[in-house]
Design goal:
Blueprint: E1 3-8, E2 12-17, E3 21-26, E4 35-36, H1 38-52, E5 59-64, E6 69-71, E7 73-74, H2 85-104, E8 109-113, E9 116-118, H3 120-126, E10 130-134, E11 140-142, H4 156-164, H5 166-175, E12 178-179, H6 181-186, E13 192-194, H7 196-208, H8 218-223, H9 229-243, H10 250-262, H11 268-281, H12 284-300, E14 312-316, H13 320-331, E15 335-339, H14 343-361, H15 364-373, E16 374-376, E17 388-391, H16 397-410, E18 416-419, H17 426-429, E19 439-443, E20 453-458, H18 464-476, E21 480-485, H19 492-508, H20 513-523, H21 529-536, H22 538-552, H23 558-565, E22 579-581, E23 584-586, H24 598-618, H25 624-635, H26 644-651, H27 653-667, H28 677-680
Bound molecules: 1,4-dihydronicotinamide adenine dinucleotide (NAI).
1,4-dihydronicotinamide adenine dinucleotide binds near residues 319, 340, 403, 420 and 444.
Length: about 675
């Protein structure tokens, strides 16, 4: 491109080439990603004003100056300062006006998209006449706003259904999922998906020879007709209701309602969109989800600046956990050696890893690279050269001690020695070590590929630099590291346990499983505790309980022992608390007569909250934010409630303490309030 003139703004730069094509590049000065904040939009508005009065402009191409992608969306940090729905709506309207201005420009406008094009970024692109995207695995387009408890507000809920029809548009908006450039092309969201080397050329060609009449898709248009909308609206609502409750997540329901009422008519539909998102932005749901977003970012940002570049992971134990840990690390780019005393189990684990790689990476050569990196190592040749060694053998103290005593001798002196134990205190395992400060816990959750959180277990002796390195490693395999104190059950299992035990107590009283599960799901848990126990495996639950009963005195329920003795272990054996057909749960139907006594929800939730308070008081994690984040990403505590401590504080300590006292008087001292309530929840 021969450039003849460049004007630089704080966040944007505008280059004019010999054909009078205007190349407008966004490169936010104060951030390494492009998000849309007040100053970016103000400048954009000024640029559009000046361009609209310039009749020399041949075309406008909007592009990003960042390696991280086009535009990731609105700047979420700005949401925090909004105090009222009216203020939010007014702010949104300003953004809408700017995008409308872009849409009204008389010359061709083209969004040239590389990498992330999300939320407000996609809405900006939708206000352009053409969209050209790079066809690569990095390019993702979507409107993820519902994940923050809001919905698109800069015309996305209007322009997208207008462009690609209501069916495809609602699929994207209501789920918040994103799509590749190829899929976007297929659904008509972008006009071209081309490799990077052709991207500029394609944008240029649209600028110089814009296609005159783009073919209309009548089927898409039909979906937005007035008499079709109520019918489709009911379908969308029905599908939404199967996944979420409008009480917990009102925003996708609002999108459907607005669209049924106003369709894609401008300006009514845009007006309604602004008014509706204004209300959503100040709901507790949205406030909590935005907070959780930042907490997650906080966990992700740990380990920055620590100089540790591990390349080789050695995993010992190729069972349920070790096998999956090895596969996950190989998929994430590590060289992995996998050891087990039973070679057959290494074979099984490698087969599972192949399936994981296929699912995650899809392309043959990438899958092959993973399999080349994952080496069966029955005799432990990898121990000598590994940067990090993860032990995931059977949960037996003596076996683990023997193994670590050997590892300390054989491994590189600076290799990280980590255990995946769920229940054995690090201070017991490390007794056999000459340098007990070398041992750390890296506690994964089952199933490894699905669970985002990993507890970094700090023993009393664990060296600080080892904790930092373990955090770096966990970030490198794309998991969320949560530093926790070594103490029975650590954080996640400890808080989950009383809640699960209460579910078993309810079962023992004769309350039906589906009723207990419904109470938890209505509260917002992703799965009820009875089904969760079956999914984890009743034998695993029993083993963990028995181990913990040694250290914490917790009573193991007879009912659980009976199921395990009969070999009814849950989902994996086809029978546990529930029956399973082809891996799917078959629950006894509950009728409308089977009402859920509020007592059930209170009993489940209060035991969980009480344990959370105890963990905070004992300093299992450093603060309430970490506790909340751990529970949300560790076992799915409803994110819209902000985590156990946020939820307890919102409800009020006094009220919850009173409820605990009532439950204690009826059910005994398992409901005795922890002494931390006054200090931690006030
Ligand atoms: P598993 O029984 O499926 O696998 C253990 C493997 O270790 C077996 O393949 C066995 O052959 C091998 N093994 C035993 N002793 C060995 C030795 N000395 N040298 C080499 N290989 C040896 O057990 P699972 O469930 O994978 O658990 C492993 C560890 O992970 C335990 O410490 C457990 O507490 C922990 N964990 C388990 C979770 C679960 O849900 N299963 C969740 C989180 C942690």
């Amino acid at each position: 491109m021969d450039q003849i003139m460049t004007t630089n703004f704080e966040n944007w730069s505008l280059k004019v080439d010999e054909d009078n094509i205007h190349w407008l590049t966004l490169d936010r000065s104060d951030s390494n990603v492009n998000s849309l904040n007040e100053s970016v939009l103000r400048e954009f508005d000024q640029i559009l004003n000046s361009l609209s009065q310039n009749n020399q402009v041949k075309a406008l191409i909007i592009r990003s100056g960042k390696k991280t992608g086009f535009i990731v969306g609105a700047d979420i940090a700005q949401f925090k300062t909004i105090v009222s729905a009216e203020e939010a709506t007014n702010l949104i309207r300003k953004g809408q006006e700017i995008f409308n201005k872009l849409e009204r420009l008389q010359f061709p406008t083209i969004a040239m998209i590389e990498g992330f094009c999300l939320g407000g970024g996609l809405e900006l692109a939708l206000a352009c006449r053409f969209r050209i995207a790079e066809d690569s695995s990095k390019t993702r387009l979507g409107l993820p706003e519902v994940k923050l408890g809001i919905h698109p507000g800069w015309g996305g809920t209007v322009r997208l259904p207008n462009l690609i029809g209501a069916l495809a548009a609602m699929d994207l908006i209501l789920s918040g999922r994103n799509v590749t450039a190829k899929s976007a092309k297929k659904m008509g969201l972008v006009h071209e998906a081309v490799p990077l080397r052709l991207l500029e050329k394609a944008a240029r060609s649209y600028a110089l020879n814009p296609p005159a009449n783009l073919k209309k898709n009548y089927l898409h248009e039909m979906t937005n007709l007035e008499f079709v909308r109520p019918v489709l609206g009911r379908l969308f609502q029905y599908q939404l209701n199967k996944k979420v409750s409008p009480k917990h997540y009102p925003s996708p329901f609002a999108v459907v309602e607005n669209w049924v009422e106003n369709g894609v008519k401008i300006p009514q539909a845009m007006d309604k969109e602004a008014e509706s998102i204004g209300k959503m932005l100040v709901t507790d749901t949205s406030r909590n989800l935005v907070r959780v977003f930042f907490l997650q970012e906080q966990l992700k940002s740990q380990g920055k600046g620590v100089d540790f570049k591990p390349k080789h992971v050695h995993v010992i134990g190729a069972g349920v956990m070790g096998g999956d840990i090895a596969g996950w690390c190989a998929v994430r780019g590590f060289k992995v050696t996998l050891q087990d005393q039973a070679p057959k189990l290494i074979g099984n684990a490698i087969k599972r890893s192949y399936e994981l790689a296929t699912k995650q990476l899809k392309e043959k050569h990438l899958i092959q690279e993973v399999m080349d990196r994952l080496l069966p190592d029955p005799t432990g040749l990898g121990i000598k050269s590994a940067d990090i060694i993860i032990e995931a053998i059977t949960e037996k103290l003596q076996a683990k001690q023997e193994l670590f005593a050997m590892l300390e001798q054989e491994a590189k002196p600076d290799a990280i020695l980590a255990t995946n134990t769920s229940t054995i205190p690090l201070e017991e395992i490390n007794q056999v070590l000459q340098n007990p400060e070398r041992l750390i816990g890296i506690h994964f959750f089952n199933p490894v590929p699905k669970m985002p959180l990993v507890e970094i277990v700090k023993g009393k002796d664990t060296d600080k630099s080892i904790i930092e390195k373990a955090i770096v490693f966990v970030r490198k395999i794309d998991k969320l590291p949560l530093p926790v104190k070594s103490s029975p059950g650590f954080l996640v299992n400890r808080i989950l346990l009383p809640y699960m035990l209460e579910a078993v107590a309810l079962l023992e009283e004769g309350i039906q499983g589906p009723i207990i599960d419904k109470a938890a799901v209505d509260f917002g848990m992703p799965m009820g505790p009875v089904e969760l126990a079956d999914t984890v495996g009743l034998d695993i639950c029993l083993a963990a309980l028995e181990k913990l009963s040694d250290t914490t005195g917790v009573k193991v329920p007879t009912k659980l022992k009976e199921y395990v003795a009969r070999g009814e272990l849950g989902r994996k054996t086809g029978k546990g608390f529930y029956q399973y057909k082809k891996g799917k749960v078959v629950k006894p139907k509950i009728t409308s007569k089977d009402t859920i006594a509020p007592d059930i929800t209170d009993r489940l939730v209060l035991r969980l909250l009480n344990e959370a308070v105890a963990c905070l008081r004992e300093g299992i994690v450093d603060n309430a934010d970490l506790l909340d984040t751990g529970c949300i990403f560790g076992f799915g505590f409803p994110p819209f409630r902000g985590g156990p401590i946020t939820y307890a504080r919102k409800q009020g300590g006094e009220l919850l303490l009173k409820q605990l006292q009532e439950l204690e008087s009826r059910y005994g001292d398992r409901f005795a309030a922890d002494e931390g309530w006054n200090s931690e929840v006030a």
